[in-house]
């Protein structure tokens, strides 16, 4: 695996179809599953590793974000990555960026409402990665549901010659969605955090049983989280095409949640369809590499 730090070097010696997996590092099996999806679709698999300051509205959150570049590189190579693009801030933003990519209609709710400017930062950095690395396809996890819709719509609206592909949410054995932030949870906070996935699974069960009311589905999640005394920011059923709020599940959508367990902010979702099907993600059969286990 080649490790490069500039756009020019990342574009060198590539053959055939190129797939990109953008990451902010401190990888887990969710990221690695995206690399494997890319491996199935492309001749050259590239991952990026960059903690993007533009998408953090809280400087302390940026400082706290876990980092271990050597660990990440080893995991990526094992998963089948060919090129790791690991730029410094100066390569991504050689001067204060005067151009920002914004999708206000898609970023007005959920994450966008609670993290002002977050999706401007996401869309801008992804646009730079698409322009500078010129991949044929890019793979993003659907755990970040609103982000996936934002990136997909940006690429379509701007006629970017890249296919955006979604990979399923991966969960730890107990159901907690994989996140680099899980390492911050104490034992008690982790037990409480399971209220998020339990609530979402209860809502998925209800959809499979015929429930279509957004209020009822959101209520199931809120009820489970309230039992664990989580600090809930939102639980919202949204349109999978444009993130607008749904009152009834009459088109493909996702039920998204954000809550804090202790000081750690977590997000999760299930993707739902009016035919009663639900994408709950997949569970690991062993401890995650987040905790020092094997990959």
Describe, in short, the structure shown.
With 295 residues, this protein is of the alpha/beta class. The protein contains 10 helices and 12 strands. Strand 9 and strand 10 (264-272) form a beta hairpin.
Quick tags:
single chain, 295 residues, alpha/beta, Rossmann fold, Pantoate--beta-alanine Ligase, Chain: A,domain 2, 2 domains, 6-stranded parallel beta sheet, 4-stranded antiparallel beta sheet, 10 helices, 12 strands, 37% helix, globular
Write the layout of secondary structure elements.
Blueprint: E1 2-4, H1 7-11, E2 18-23, H2 29-41, E3 44-49, H3 59-64, H4 69-79, E4 83-85, H5 89-92, H6 111-114, H7 118-133, E5 137-141, H8 145-157, E6 163-167, E7 170-171, H9 187-208, H10 214-227, E8 231-239, E9 253-261, E10 264-272, E11 278-279, E12 282-283
Helix pairs in contact: 7-8, 9-10
CATH-wise, what's the superfamily of the largest domain? HUPs
Weakly predicted, low-confidence segments: none
Summarize the main sheet: 6 strands, parallel
One letter per element, helices H and strands E, the order comes to: EHEHEHHEHHHEHEEHHEEEEE
Class of secondary structure makeup: alpha/beta
The percentage helix is 25-40%
What is the helix tally?
Answer: 10
- Quickly count the domains: 2
CATH topology of the largest domain: Rossmann fold
Shape: globular
Walk across the major sheet and give the strand order: 1-4-3-2-5-6
Strand content: 15-25%
CATH class descriptor of the largest domain: Alpha Beta
CATH architecture of the largest domain: 3-Layer(aba) Sandwich
* SS elements, strand count: 12
Q: What gyration radius follows from the Cα positions, in whole Å?
A: 19 Å
What is the typical, i.e. mean, pLDDT?
Answer: 95
State the end-to-end CA separation: 17 Å
